[in-house]
Design brief:
Low-confidence stretches: none
Strand content: over 45%
Strand order of the largest sheet: 1-2-3-4-5
Largest sheet: 5 strands, antiparallel
Number of domains: 1
Shape: elongated
Number of helices: 1
Mean pLDDT: 80
Number of strands: 5
Radius of gyration: 19 Å
Helix content: 10-25%
């Protein structure tokens, strides 16, 4: 399994390095944010869960726009009583600007609004 993940990372890096030399305009990307947190204190327990897939495209060689649509669940319990259980649908627009540091190396400035 570790070899498969390593191969995927190397392949993605190679593709992105090659694409950056030609410019990225018109290139699509997909990423995601996942999160899980659980805290316990005495009889109190709080659980947070987030899943947010993000898709975007480059509208210029170094500018990307996209959006993420996902789900956030927040739950708080005291003993056997549920104090709060909230499920939220999240829409997250984004704009990313990549700055050329040197040759094919780019630095990311990310703007996201939740």
């Amino acid at each position: 399994m570790k070899k498969v993940i390593l191969l995927a990372v190397i392949t993605a890096f190679g593709i992105s390095t090659n694409a950056q030399n030609k410019g990225l305009k018109g290139t699509w990307f997909a990423t995601s944010q996942f999160g899980y947190q659980q805290t316990k204190s005495g009889t109190s327990k709080a659980t947070n869960f987030t899943i947010l897939p993000i898709v975007g495209t480059f509208v210029a060689p170094t500018v990307a726009v996209g959006a993420g649509v996902g789900y956030v669940n927040i739950k708080a319990e005291t003993g056997s009583t549920t104090d709060a259980n909230t499920g939220l649908v999240v829409v997250e627009p984004l704009v990313r600007k990549y700055w050329n540091v040197s040759g094919g190396l780019f630095s990311l400035v990310n703007w996201q609004r939740q």
